[in-house]
Each structure stands twice: as structure tokens, then as C-alpha cells.
Amino acid sequence: MEAMVYSKRSAPRGMRLTEVEKPVPTAGQVLVKIHSVSLNAADYRSMQMGIGPKSGIFGADIAGLVEAVGQDTMKFKVGDAVFGELSINDFGGLAEYVAALRHFWQRSSTQCPSNMPPPYRWPQSQRSRDFAKKAEFVRLSTDATHSLNPGKPLIT
Sheet containing 81-85: which strands, arranged edge to edge? Predict the structure, then answer.
């Protein structure tokens, strides 16, 4: 498979399209064919500082289709549309495929409440196809979640 692999300290210019081995899901993992990934400020800053994932493949906010599941992975099946945030999983979104533990993924049709305003609400017919919006939603929802402080007021 092909992936954009980071190899030197020079922001996104340091990435090169490279042929790498396609991951194989192990027990508890889900292999996802990536359809969309959103890069964020943390990706960019990490590249500028010369730090990054062991694999050299950035991209944490991902949407795609389940291609295969490892043993003991009953929550998902092949063909499920999913999205996830993989920064704790060593990233991997700037590739054709990524394997990550099942708890990093959510089925897209169950994680987009119908009462959410556009652009975060997708018509039923679009839920399995609109991967770019799903990857963007992961970034926005992750930022919102990380800005909450338990026991503190939301507005002061």
C-alpha cells in the first residue's frame, strides 16, 4: 500500500509517498480502508519539531470502511462505515489502510445524532459516503471534548 511517510524535520514538505506493508489486524483490531483524513495543528507542529509517530505516518482523524477484523472483534463487521481519532494509536491516517484497536473506532451511523445542525448532520443516504465530513467531525469533537473540565462551568 502507499502512505505519506514523514522522514525529516521540515513540516509537510518532509513527507514522501512511499510503498509500505499493508497492516494485518491482530486480536482486537480493526483494519480500515481510509477514505478521508483531516490534518490538524498538532500534526503540523509535531512535524515542525521533528517528532512524530514511530511509523512515520501522520494523520489521526480518520473515516473509512472496515476491510477486515481481528480475532475477538465482534463490534464491527466488514463494510461498516467508521471514523476514529488515532493519536494514541501512533496515528497512521495518511495511508491507504490502518489497523487500530476496536475502541478507537465508532460506526458513523450511530455517532451523528439526527438533531445536530448542519454541517454535522448527514442525511441517512449520505452517512456511509460522506467521509470527509466525518473525518472533520472527529477533529472538532475531539477538540471540544479536550476543552471540557469536569466540575467546572462551561461558561463563566
Answer: 97-101, 29-38, 61-69, 81-85, 105-107
pLDDT single digits (tens) 2-45: 999 987 665 667 788 999 999 999 999 999 999 888 877 777 77
pLDDT digits (tens, 9 = 90+) for 86-103: 876 678 999 999 999 887
Give which of 95, 87, 88, 90 is closest to 60, Cα–Cα: 87
Whole-model pTM? 0.72
The gap from C-alpha 23 to its chain's centroid, in whole angstroms, comes to 15
Question: The CATH number of 21-39+59-144 is which of 2.40.10.480, 1.10.10.10, 3.90.150.10, 3.90.180.10?
Answer: 3.90.180.10
Cβ atoms < 10 Å from Cβ of 74: 8
Q: Where are the domains of the chain?
A: 21-39+59-144
Amino acid at 152: K
